[in-house]
């Protein structure tokens, strides 16, 4: 750990990370950026190192993400399909424009509350991995339980395969206008092509992956800004080419904006989930925090500025985009089936032509691709951190770092899980498959967020006296108030997902919470096998102390065999040796 961290700022690492001369390397000296990367690797001093021992050197500072690239990771992940498609779903399920706008603002503030919690933890634990790292530190007992459950939820539910399906559907609709449900086999094929292409991009070039993401983030901000400008033009009296004489347009559409009607609890839950899905991605910088620059004297500055700027910009864009939709389109047009809201918007503003019919779908498909590029970059880093914990089969492979300096093993794992969901998810008629996958993600994400938020309280009160953890940005009572508000809101959303619908959907409503809850139960039994039965049989993981160099974490692990496993291994080694001698 750098010696200037605790003296130049208040952003010191927790006391249990302050180690000197561990495993043959000192982490108390000041980090010298001019040193070669090999000088930063811990040197083992014992002779019991075997092939299962893996070392992860830190990334040089000049290769890390700056302000723009960090913010672009968040913005590109947040702006996907939500702002182009969800406004009609939200309006249909919440009962009125006033309530819809309130939900877009409220969910933006709710996301900001979550970001405050994650930024505090990110300053304290500046490592890639987000939820996996946080629960590992906040819930040390029972050992491995929280991290195994969170890891399984993360691996199985955070793959964004639904966005690949949405991308494929839009591409097919662009070539076959008027076809609301293209051939699902073709959708699966194109979705698999996108999944494979993005994973290969991130495997072979980290730099190119960042460049593509930065470009698509700018593109998406520009597209939403253009929608907002068209809405303001309509407010000012401009009349769209696609407006018929009898159709309301501009400020006329705000005459009955305050009118609302009562909706069922299940419908309200659909509206909230739709908005929350649009805001998904505010935590993306925490996933790659080891790769974010840490300037001397204010190590968390890049992280904080990028995170808060990104969520502030996105919230403003979302609210103003909805104002633009409500200005141009009537309630009847918004609620009518067929094309997504943004497509109807452009048809009414510019008229129904070839570009609107085909080209706009490609434009939105590019936005979805940008979302998938950004999410895959972050998710692969988290899955690599999970593999480093050695709680998965073939963990050593999944934790591999390629010579391109990319998490190749984690990207392979990401591809397999995403491909399985694309191949085995039922028909996508009327976006049923897309809604199922996205709802599964939101449900699992809410449980992870609740666990992390409550973990902050555990981290605070686990120790007393000088070693107690203190927030870095907010007074503890303010952060506790945020947690006390944020956790019940997420629990309320989880309860709403179990609420029976008024009309039966193609995929039963209980499937989403049932599958996600089943993964949590499976995680508990997996923990019993991993943490109780395997050590009893003699198989266990011995984790060597973490090393901190310039805010980065180097993790080394070694698999240890004792008891029955050790005896069986010795016998097998002797047997194979004697067999070779006989040959």
What would your notes on this structure say?
- This protein is mainly α and 583 residues long.
- It has helices spanning 5-8, 67-78, 82-94, 97-124, 131-138, 145-157, 161-175, 184-204, 206-235, 265-279, 284-287, 301-328, 331-335, 341-350, 354-388, 395-398, 408-424, 432-461, 476-497, 511-537, 563-582; strands at residues 539-543, 547-549, 552-554, 557-561.
- The strands form 2 sheets. It has a two-stranded antiparallel sheet. The chain has a two-stranded antiparallel sheet with strand order 2-3.
- Helix 18 packs antiparallel against helix 19 (476-497).
Helical amount = 55-70%
Contiguous low-pLDDT stretches (5 residues minimum) are 1-52, 547-552
- Number of DSSP strands? 4
Secondary structure class reads: mainly alpha
Q: Determine Rg (CA atoms, Å).
A: 25 Å
Spatial shape: globular
Biggest sheet descriptor = 2 strands, antiparallel
Number of helices: 21
Query: Beta fraction of the residues?
Result: under 5%
**SSE pattern:** HHHHHHHHHHHHHHHHHHHHEEEEH
Strand order of the largest sheet: 1-4
Mean pLDDT level: 79
Q: Ends: how far apart? A: 53 Å
